[in-house]
């Protein structure tokens, strides 16, 4: 499915293909919560990095979070004008890009079976978490999608 997204001010827009465009993960980690999580979490979508097309890239900025004192290779892309969170890309998984559901303008499908994975490592005490949870390490995307398994397959379990 072709997803189209943009920042709040319209300076940056993007298009990306997602074979399973389900808002699949509520991430309560301190990085997502503080950079993109107005409700105490960010909602991620999986997409194919090689299909990402950006308009207004000159307005885009990248933030690398520090995890336990070390700079993460993960790239959090946001609008340098209005600060809207756009997507995350991590060169350790070069085939993937994770747009934030909040930046997507295309109507998104409801995940099958109500599938939402919640990563509850370091949630804010005031933010209620959901039912399907894990306290895994930063490697959760690999466990959520074992080799040969898609987000759609994972959600159908």
Describe what this molecule looks like in 3D.
- The protein is mostly beta strands.
- The protein is 11% helix and 31% strand.
- The protein has 3 helices and 14 strands.
- A 5-stranded antiparallel beta sheet has the order 5-12-11-10-7, with no helix packed on it. Strands 4-3-13-14 form a 4-stranded mixed beta sheet.
- A hairpin with a 2-residue loop joins strand 8 (66-67) and strand 9.
Give me the secondary-structure topology:
Elements: E1 2-6, E2 13-17, E3 25-27, H1 30-36, E4 42-44, E5 47-48, E6 53-55, E7 60-63, E8 66-67, E9 70-71, E10 75-79, E11 85-89, E12 96-99, E13 117-119, E14 133-134, H2 140-144, H3 151-156
Parallel strand pairs: 3-13, 13-14
Antiparallel strand pairs: 1-2, 2-6, 3-4, 5-12, 7-10, 8-9, 10-11, 11-12
Provide the succession of SSEs: EEEHEEEEEEEEEEEHH
Gyration radius (Cα, Å) is: 15 Å
How would a crystallographer describe the biggest sheet?
5 strands, antiparallel
The rounded distance between the terminal residues' Cα atoms is 21 Å
| Unreliable segments of 5+ consecutive residues | 132-145
> Structural class, please?
mainly beta
Proportion of residues in helical segments: 10-25%
Q: List the total number of helices.
A: 3
Q: What is the molecular shape?
A: globular
- The proportion of residues in beta strands is 25-35%
Average pLDDT across residues?
79
Number of strands: 14
Strand order of the largest sheet: 5-12-11-10-7
